[in-house]
């Protein structure tokens, strides 16, 4: 049996996206631009919905929350990554790592639940249009939104506490550009069985439940759209949910590709870290683009917002 010298871990070393110094600054520029585009894109969605009264509906209320998540989620990891790329210092404190993991898991979990709520909203709008205003009341929307945020943060608290109660006495090098449960847990020299079971059981139940709500909702939505007789009616119904459906496919597609794809010895750790960018950075940048391009009402609101700003600048 191996004997470990158990010491108090005070900091972790985040292995960056690349150990090659010649690409450090190009990576900094690329991801700084991506982060800025993410902030501007989602900020524009928030402004457009906030200033357009006809968009003050349940669907766009949930979209506001999605845009907030798409701002907060990369903000939990990207600034530290940019700092590491610029200063070549890869360290993060034990407490900083715990907070980063907590907020990352909380925000990602909240987005999973929110996408399920948004799918249910689309189901009611398309399959039960006459009862929509009775079901999706203002109070109901607030309750659903509060529930998604509470579930995400409570779930993350459970996993964060179980992860950082472990003893860390091996290497302090986290094989990722941010603190996540699997790479942090891999550094433990104590049993990780309980923490792993919590991830599999609690995370699995909540994640699968949210996925099933989303999946079943869209089964009913597609079935209802196919029953519409006119082409114009089908197009109108599909345009209502097309943006959200693309966002759902993008979110679950990148999540599966990042975490559930089969492992292979041909996959280098550096390539795995780059692939994780799909989930943590690229998706939040693409979501506002999808809504601004596919959703006519959001597109018109953004156009009026830009025209208003242009008129103010000319005065």
UniProtKB/TrEMBL annotation:
Keywords: Cell membrane, G-protein coupled receptor, Membrane, Olfaction, Receptor, Sensory transduction, Transducer, Transmembrane, Transmembrane helix. Coiled coil: none annotated. The chain crosses the membrane at residues 27-48, 60-79, 99-120, 141-158, 197-221, 242-262, 274-293. It is a multi-pass membrane protein. One of its GO terms (molecular function) is G protein-coupled receptor activity. SUPFAM superfamilies: Family A G protein-coupled receptor-like. It is found in: Cell membrane. Residues 41-291 form the G-protein coupled receptors family 1 profile domain. One of its GO terms (cellular component) is plasma membrane. Putative odorant or sperm cell receptor. PANTHER family: OLFACTORY RECEPTOR (PTHR26452). This is Olfactory receptor 5V1-like. It comes from Ursus maritimus (Polar bear).
